[in-house]
Structure formats: structure tokens, C-alpha cells
Amino acid sequence: MSDNVNFFNDEETDALQELMNIAFGQAAAELAEVIDISVTLSFPKLNIVKVSDLMNHIADDVKYINKCNLVEQRYKGDTGGVAYLIFPHGTEKEFVSMFHMDEEDNDHEVFIDVEREVLSEVGNILIGACISKIFDLLKTNVTYTPPHTMIGHKFENHFLKGCFTGEDYAIMLNTGFSLSEKTIEGYLFLVNCQSSIEPLKKALADLFESYE
After folding, report:
1. For the ranges 5-19, 104-118, 174-188, which has the lowest average pLDDT?
2. Which of 113, 117, 149, 174 is least enclosed by beta carbons within 10 angstroms?
3. Which residues are CB-neighbours of 16 under 8 A, at least 6 positions away?
4. For residue 35, what are the CA distances in angstroms to 12, 104, 161, 167, 182?
5. Using an 8 Å Cβ cutoff, are 140 and 203 in contact?
6. Can you say whether residue 162 is alpha, beta or left, with left for phi > 0 and alpha for psi between -120 and 50 degrees?
7. What is the pLDDT of residues 142-185, one digit of tens each?
8. Where are the alpha helices (DSSP H) in the chain?
């Protein structure tokens, strides 16, 4: 259940969504510099949901979560949480081809490592640029861990392990996107802990004040 009204007003919600739109646009541009491909994205959404309901909300958007490629990256600072970049299983080979690598040149075990490294690099670009841009705009500090990449896994087996507790609420910003030349679709979810609400509201207030 969305509960935005209890935490963010309409102006704050619109600003957070627009900040993610700007941030993901920059991240997409950085990816295009590496693999020369255009990225089409949907406008981001913001929902405030109980942690216990998060899996259902993500499943509503992502239909292939029972077997997917997943890049997970955690971040912390004045606000903190975890980012998930989710692709359908099989797209790892498409990404490898974009980096001009040939599967026939590698044995199976080596190529699995290559696929994982390529997805990690894509995750570093999309997640890293997106997170850093959002928090730069909000003028709050953030650090994040190296990405953890899994191929062909069930998303539920890794979701929020050790990140959140019980009936807490989480702030979920997410967007869908596609890489047009390869018809690859994916989703990016930023799941912030409930303790992030007040720092985010303060950062937004400072941002609004700077434009007055």
C-alpha cells in the first residue's frame, strides 16, 4: 500500500521523482559513452511501503523475478539503503556482445566470470551514477559498496538480506528502462530505510529554499 501522504507532501514526492529522473538520465548517458547505445526510460515512481510488502510491489513490475540477473549495491550516509538493478536471465550474453567479446574465445567457466564482470560494470555505471547524482543534488553524503552480481537467480532468495527489519517502512524509488538496439529491458529500484525520511525531507527543504 502506498503511504506517501504520511511522509512526503506532493511537492516533495514530485521533487524526489524528478531528481531520480535527472540522475538516471545522467547514468544512461554515461553508459552510452561506454557501449554506444541509447537508453529509453520510464518516469520514476515513488512509493512508501512496509518492508514486508516490498517483494509484492516489485513483483507487480518485474515479471521475471523467479530467474533473473541481479546487481545489488548498498549505500549509506545521511540516508541509506540498497539498490537493485534487475534484468531478465539471458541478457548477460547480450551485454557481453556489446563489449565486443566472443563467447567462443573462452571456456565455459571463464565466460561465466566475464558475464558477471560485464554486468557488474553496467551496474557500477547505472547504479553508481544514479545514486551519486541524487545525493549530490540533495547535498547529502553517501558511500556505497562494490556491486554484488548474480546470474540466473531467484530474486526473493537475495532480497533485502540483512538490510531492513519487520514492519518498518521503506522508501522505494524505481524506474523501468530499455536499451533500444538490443531490446533489453530492466528495472532499477532504490530502497531507502525508514530512517532516511527525515534527512531526505530536510535536504529537500534546503533544496527548495535555494531556489527561493
Report:
1. 104-118
2. 113
3. 8, 46, 173, 200, 204
4. 35, 21, 32, 41, 12
5. yes
6. left
7. 888 888 888 888 877 767 666 666 667 778 888 887 776 666 77
8. 10-35, 54-61, 91-98, 108-137, 197-210
CB neighbour list of residue 191: distance below 8 Å, 6 or more residues apart:
54, 81, 82, 83, 84, 160, 163, 164, 170, 171, 172
Please state the three-class secondary structure of 38-96 as a single string: CEEECCCEEEEEEHHHHHHHHHHHCCCCCCEEEEEEEEEECCCEEEEEEEECCHHHHHH
Q: Is 176 helix (H, G, I), strand (E, B) or coil?
A: strand
Report residue 183 CA to chain centroid gap. Answer: 19
In sequence order, the β-bridge partners of residue 173 are 46, 190
Residue among 94, 82, 112 at smallest CA distance from 37:
94
| Residue 11, all three cell numbers | 511537492
Name the one residue in this structure whose C-alpha cell is 527561493: 212
Domains and CATH numbers, the chain: 4-210 (3.40.1550.10)
DSSP for residue 154: -
Q: What DSSP element (H or E) covers 140? A: none
Q: What angle do CA 158, 162, 167 make, to 5 degrees?
A: 100
The 8-class DSSP code of residue 146 comes to P
* pTM of the complete model: 0.81
- Which residue is it, cell 566475464? 114
Q: Per-residue pLDDT for 200 more than 80?
A: yes
